[in-house]
Each structure stands twice: as C-alpha cells, then as structure tokens.
Amino acid sequence: MARLFGSINREHRRVVLAAMAGTTIEWYDFFVYAISAGLVFATQYFSALGKDALILSFATVGISFFFRPIGAVIAGHLGDRLGRRAMLIATLLLMGVSTVLIGLVPGTASIGVAAPILLVVLRIVQGLSAGGEWGGAALLAVEHAPAGRRGLYGAFPQIGVPLGLLLANGALALAAAVTTPAQFLAWGWRIPFLLSFVLIVVGFAIRSRVAESPVFEEVRRTRSRSSLPLVPLVRHHGPLVLLGAVLFAANNAVGYMTTGGYVQSYAVKTLHLDRSTVLAAVMVSAVAWLVSTLIGGHLADRIGRIVVYRIGFAVQLVWMVPFFALLDTANVGLLVLALVLFSVGLGFTYGPQAALYAEMYPTHVRYSGAAISYAIGAVLGGAFAPTIAEALQSSTGTVYSVCAYLAGMTVLGLVASFFIRDRRDVPLSDTEPAGGPVVAGDAVP
C-alpha cells in the first residue's frame, strides 16, 4: 500500500486522501451501527419481541438501505449540477451528526417505544447520507486521475470501507475490553458512536481543502450540465444502471456477512466465542480486504476492470462452502483464516468499482449514474442480507442455507459482468454521446 500511495504525486495524493478519509469516516459510522445491531440493539431496544428481537434489530440495518437510492438521487442531482466537492462535505456532516445522536438515544427501559423509533429515524438519515457519499468520493478520485491509473486512484475511496470496518470493530472491541459485559451493554457501546464527533472535524478539515474535479470544471465552463440529470440517465442509460446494481449486489451481499454483523452475531451468540476475540478477527479480515481492494484496483489498470471482477467472483464462489465449514468449527484461528481468504474475493470485486462506474456514464450524468447504481445494488445485495441470513439459519438450523443464498448472489454478479463493456482506455471528458448503455458488443463511442 505504501508503495502504491507513494507513486502518486503530491497534488493527487491530497485528492485520494480526501476521498479515502471521508469514506472511511462515513463507513465507520455506518458499520458501528451495523455491528451494534447484532451485539447490542436487540437487548437495548427490541427486547420486548423475545426471540424475534435479533431479526428485527438486523432489519433496522436494512431499512436504511431503502433510503440510499433517495440520497443517491438527491446527491447525484446536486453533484452533477453544483459539483462533487460540496456534496462530499454535506454527506460527511449528515452521517456524522446522526451517528453521534444514535449514541445519545436512551434505551427502551428509559423512554419506551420512543427509543426504537428514534433509532430507526437516525438510521434512515445515515442511509440518505451513505447513498450520496460513495458516488462523490469515487468520482473525485477517478476524475482527478491521470490516464491509465483510474483503477488505482479509484481504489483509494474503496478502501475507506474496510478501513471503516477496521475502525468500527476496533472501537467496539476496545470498548468491550475496558468494560464488563454488563457495562458494555449498558453504556460502553455508546463510546464509538460519540467518537464520531472527532472524526467529523478531521474529515471536514481534509475535504474542505480539496479542489473540484477538473472534468466537472470543464463541464461547468462549457455550460453542458444537465438541468435534471435523472431524466437523460434513465432515458439513455437505464439498463446500464440496473446491470451496475446487480454487479454491486453480488459483492455487497457477501460483504455484509461481516460488515453487516451476521458473522459477529453468529460467532458470539451461537458458537459462544468471546466478543472481543471475534471483533479482533474481523479486524484482521478488514486489513486483508483493504490490501486486496488496492491490488484489485491496481490490476484493473493492467488487465481490465471486468477481468478482475470475474476473478473476484470466482474466488467468492469457490471459497463459499469452506468459509462456512471453518466458521462452524468455532475455532478462532480457523475463523480468522476463513475471513481473510473470504476478503480476497471481496477486494477483487470492489477495487475496480469506482473506475468502472465512472467510465460507464458521461460526465453530465456521471454522479447520478454511479451513485444510483451503487445505491440500488446496496438495496438488492446488502439491505437485508444479515436479516435473510439470520432467518435462513434459524429456520433451517444450518449455515449452509446462507451459503446457498450467497452463492446465488455471486453467480448473478458474474453473469452481469458479461454484459458490461470495459472502457478503461476511453477518456472521461464529456465528449462521448449520450447514447444507449455501453454493454458487451457495443462500439466504443
């Protein structure tokens, strides 16, 4: 990672750092909630539901995903009209404030039914923010990138996700380590949420210093911005938006086994492993995910975005059954091995994403297209993946039903990859026609 980062000049380094730092903070906030849903919220906010408390707790993770497309539409419209930088600052503040407030919501024992209602409302705000964040961060990095390096530059905002996962698990593991189990459930879990305030200040300081995307500035100068980007996007690129969504859904469903809290919950509550140990294991896997994501972005510049995607999906598919077999051993070392190797496929299906999505759309609808594809894919893949997994495992009594579900999602992503054209050699300038979707077999504009 140091070698790849060091190969970027100072000006561009500031850009990728801003994209990576902001995305890290956004996803730290998002994952702290998702992990806490599996470890804490069923007890603190949904205990009255008995055995269904955990399923509903995971469902609150999924509810926010339905608001991500709304956030993507709003941020995409404003990002294509006003610029990428302003939206990145707005989404960062929205996510951070809602996360701090979640850390202050009293439990059901204190304020009754108002507690879970407030929790869900703030989770919805997180969903709106997450829907707009990724598109802006990805485009800022990719549109600043020199020719032939868009895959690598685009991988830096991507590693904000495993970095966010690493920080979220680390903060919760530390809170669990310095408190008793009773103290952690009572108040210790709130500390990582409140720490988000510090991260907001850091993220704002970094992002406020970054210049606007040069590609967008060119569009601004030529007055070729669309007054309503969603209309030409749907009219000319609708099928491509859906293909991009399916591609991401396959990655997202698998990723949310760890980021969405299912593995943490299953390992602690079903396999009876120590909470801090499980969180530490996920932190190790987050490092592997980070490294493989960077490698995936780097390889995407060399062998193509779609080729790297297919390698990643193949790894996911091949490792699916061994992953769950090792998980069920309840052995910590084998759990770490399972998660680390699982992360290789995740990285290869995530590293090329920013560059691929940016290259799929012309500049005047690029923010909208990338953000909406990403948000719809998150709904299809990640929204209720932990809930579905918990329900499947509870009803069948085996984690292999979860394995079958994730294998099916992976196959869908692999199939979708054969209908998307790799356009890594096409300039990002707004000169391409706003014709139909760039899919397999189309001529490059």
Question: Mind explaining what this structure looks like?
Answer:
The chain is mainly α and 445 residues long. Helices cover 77% and strands 0% of the residues. It has helices at 2-6, 10-44, 53-63, 68-82, 84-102, 108-111, 114-144, 150-158, 160-177, 181-188, 190-194, 196-207, 214-222, 230-255, 262-270, 275-303, 305-327, 332-348, 353-360, 363-381, 385-396, 400-417. α2 (10-44) runs antiparallel to α7 and α2 packs across α9 (160-177). 57% of the residues are buried.
Could you list some keywords that capture this structure?
445 residues; 77% helix; globular; disordered C terminus; mainly alpha; 0% strand
Show the helix and strand layout.
Layout: H1 2-6, H2 10-44, H3 53-63, H4 68-82, H5 84-102, H6 108-111, H7 114-144, H8 150-158, H9 160-177, H10 181-188, H11 190-194, H12 196-207, H13 214-222, H14 230-255, H15 262-270, H16 275-303, H17 305-327, H18 332-348, H19 353-360, H20 363-381, H21 385-396, H22 400-417
Helix pairs in contact: 2-3, 2-5, 2-7, 2-8, 2-9, 2-12, 3-21, 4-5, 4-7, 4-20, 5-7, 5-12, 7-8, 7-20, 8-16, 8-19, 9-16, 14-20, 14-22, 16-17, 16-18, 17-18, 17-22, 19-20, 21-22
Order of helices and strands: HHHHHHHHHHHHHHHHHHHHHH
Distance between the termini: 34 Å
Number of helical stretches of at least 4 residues: 22
Our estimate of the beta-strand percent is under 5%
Précis, in short:
With 445 residues, this protein is an all-alpha fold. It contains 22 helices and no strands.
